[in-house]
Amino acid sequence: MSATADAALAELRERVSAAHRTRQGLRLRGSGTKDFYGEGLAGEVLELRAHRGIVDYEPSELVITARCGTSLSEIEAALAAHGQFLAFEPPAFGADPSIGGVIAAGLSGPRRVYAGAARDFVLGTRLLTGDGEMLRFGGQVMKNVAGFDVSRLLCGSLGILGVITEVSLKVLPRPRAEQTLRLELPAAAAVESFNRWSTLGMPISGGAWWQGSAWLRLSGAPPAVRSARERIGGEAIDAASAQAWWDALRHCQLPLFDSRVIWRLSLPGAAPPLSLPGEPLIDWGGALRWYADPADDADVRTLAGAAGGTALCWRGPAPAGRFHPLPPALARLHRRLKERFDPHGIFNPGRLLAGV
Amino acid sequence: MAEADIAAALRTFLPEDCVLSREEERRPYECDALTVFRQLPALVVLPRTEQQLHQVLLTCSRLGVPVVARGAGTGLSGGSTPHAQGVLLSCARLNRILEIDPHARIARLEPGVPNLRVSEAAAAHGLYYAPDPSSQVACSIGGNVAENSGGVHCLKYGLTVHNVLGVRGYTMEGDLLELGGRAQDGPGLDLLALTIGSEGLLMIVTEVTVKLIPRPPCAQLVMASFADVHSAATAVAAVIAAGIIPAALEMMDRQATAAVEPFARAGYDLTAAAILLVESDGTPEEVADQVREIEQVLRTAGASTLRVSGSEAERLRWWSGRKNAFPAAGRLSPDYYCMDGTIPRRHVGEVLQAIERMEARYALRCMNVFHAGDGNLHPVILFDANDPDSWERAERFGAQILELCVQLGGTITGEHGVGVEKLNSMCVQFSPAERAAFAAVKEAFDPAGLLNPGKVIPTLARCAEYGRMRVHHGALPHADLPRF
Does B283 reach chain A within 8 Å, measured CB to CB? Predict the structure, then answer.
């Protein structure tokens, strides 16, 4: 480990140990690009940006290991230099998050249904716990079933179990060819089509619907992309416009995201569009449906639940909590895990679940 | 608590034939596929419904009786070794396919459904379930969830954790948990990921929802011979470095091909020090392109001969040798012990050479058949269980291989699990604080410690004892090995 990284880690451990002694809540912060995300911010800010740098990257191993403060852009540039990428396409919201924040939030992009979510690419983590211990889970190998899969548990934990100081991620070669198609379709027909196309073995890597158009991204070997394109038809979009569209979808930068109230719904892929006022943005490949300014909060949760999914209040007032409520048995497990990993409750108190 | 009292409590709600108490009925459950560990359970219980299973857990929880779940008993690490005072809970009769939804591409299954049956049921829709452990004819989906099972195709298609969308089941305390589901992004911690591969220590699964994917229309297998093991290992890294993710990338050394060929008649090159099997799947055009590319990379990496399967029959024949490697070991030797370490791909050659040196040290033969693309080794140590010294050497040989895997940044188990077999090796891979974190997870789910107790997480005392033993056997652990 480099001397700077050593010093940064030593300082982090000291801060955490002190907070542990004095029962001081800590608000873990990488780049602060997701301060809006979660049930709320509490505690003294603990900056993690200084513990940074790529520790190990061997393209033929398909693994990159980086300290938590490393920026997403640095990682993506290193991978791009070897024709590789993070296939879960984490959203950056127009800024440059740290990789620790990316994994702690566990958000994934439009390739999710086909390539996998953030947690599917987590191979290993290092965790700084409340009592100042450094723990290592998983590793840098593709297959590892020694002990419980704590690394994947940490992905999406919003920092409540400890500080993720380092992560190892599986990376993939960039697809050789990519082609985006646009078809004029109503929302329900688009959802039906995304499902049907997915049963046919075509190299789909994204499917979305917005304002009357279905967008379909094909990625893979050139002959497979070519034949799928012929089979599906529609308008072939040029590479630059396609990139702009998928980037806007991935990073939540379409006009819908200027709305005052935004709901993010996770529904079964085959569920038809909900009967809510206003048209949704359907990120089918990201397994998400976005609704802006609906009439009543309760309606959204009830409708999402009835369709077999959940609803997260992404923006706007959320008196009943941002996240969909957990059943009591699950909430109890969350409290027990929190008590054992962070007995004094110092890490990101209440950010994932009230009181946890 | 006396067995008779437990049986009586269970028989108040279970039919007579769901509780086995006579010794000859319990005997078949004394071990899984790692037969060196045997223990007769106090009782065997075979519920037919989820409700019965739930009642079993509530009753055992109330009486303080340990419960060990078992799927098909094909596990390779003693994960379902029974508890002497406990109930062995077999999920074999919960074996219904509850739903196949071809449009949504999912299957909803009871835990006892055999892995292969899922793909057979989905075949009519052109779909299949990707993870294919070697034991897929017999092994159950519930067992796959418990072990996070892999297979030869997980390089491209992922492990169980990547292919299971949700589980439903019960904690030892009887709480119903529904984790994940058809909607992929639930609130809270990812307890689904935590549960998969938890070896029956956290909950008992009564329903599993899996992802089905379209069966690729075409597959071809490239078989390459190498004059030495090291260049075969280098070729593996070269394939990945070229940006190719083959459907499978397997390696067999000469000991393995020689063992398999006489009865599988796969057509392997017995003069080669090692062979690679590299599969490509997809549309015919895609496969043709990729096979050409694979051939080129392998030739550059020093392959002495290259063959491409010319027909489906030939492809399956080449695979048959690989898939029958373990039975072949059984023909060479009275017993065999299959290891499961994983290492970064770049160290495969070094580890194979180190294993060769260990063969001399422990005076035992070892053949290597493994998932080279994943760096997941399966050294198969040949020994004789009737000779206690032979088993003791085999055990130490295996432990030394695993320690080497840990030293090289790998792990003691890639897909077979810890069970009881690798408890000592857990002391090597994890610090006391890390093992305490595992114990904390266990306590959160099962505060009374009744679900599959004594597996996966070694006690402090055990690790202390193992540490002394390792020093005892040689001043330094494997001082004869070069350090990397």
Answer: yes
Query: Are A273 and A129 part of one and the same domain?
Result: no
Question: Residue A83 is part of a domain; what is its CATH number?
Answer: 3.30.465.10
**Residue B297 forms contact with A (CB below 8 Å):** no
- Whole-angstrom distance, CA of residue A287 vs CA of residue A305: 15
Query: Are residues B112 and B228 both part of a single domain?
Result: no
B324 in contact with A, Cβ within 8 Å: no
Q: What is the mean pLDDT of residues B61-84?
A: 97
Contact B441 A223 (CB under 8 A): no
B11 lies in the same domain as B66: yes
pLDDT 10s digits, B409-467: 999 999 999 999 999 999 999 999 999 999 999 999 999 999 999 999 999 999 999 88
Across B170-198, average pLDDT:
97
> Are residues B357 and B445 located together in one domain of the fold?
yes
Å between B1 CA and nearest CA of chain A: 29
Interface contact flag, A199 B126, Cβ < 8 Å: yes
Instruction: Determine whether the interchain pair A221/B150 forms a contact, defined as Cβ–Cβ distance below 8 Å.
Output: no
* Residues of A in Cβ contact (< 8 Å) with B152: none
As for how many domains chain A has, the answer is 2
Domain residues for A39? Answer: 3-173
Is the ipTM higher than 0.90? The answer is: yes
pLDDT at B482 over 70: no
In the prediction, which pLDDT does B468 show? Answer: 79
> Does B432 touch chain A if contact means CB atoms closer than 8 Å?
no
Residue B351 placed within a domain: yes
Across the interface, whether the CB atoms of A227 and B438 are under 8 A apart is answered no
User: Among A124, A150, A173, which residue terminates a domain?
Assistant: A173
Best residue of A39, A134, A148 to probe chain B, by most B CBs closer than 10 Å: A148
Q: Per the CB < 8 Å rule, is B185 touching A266?
A: yes
The whole domain housing B428 covers 333-473
B481 belongs to a structural domain: no
Looking at the domain assignment, is residue A148 inside a domain? yes
A148 and A194 inside one domain: no
Note whether residue A335 is domain-resident: no
Minimum distance, in Å, between the CA of residue A323 and any CA atom of chain B: 6
pLDDT (0 to 100) of residue A294: 80
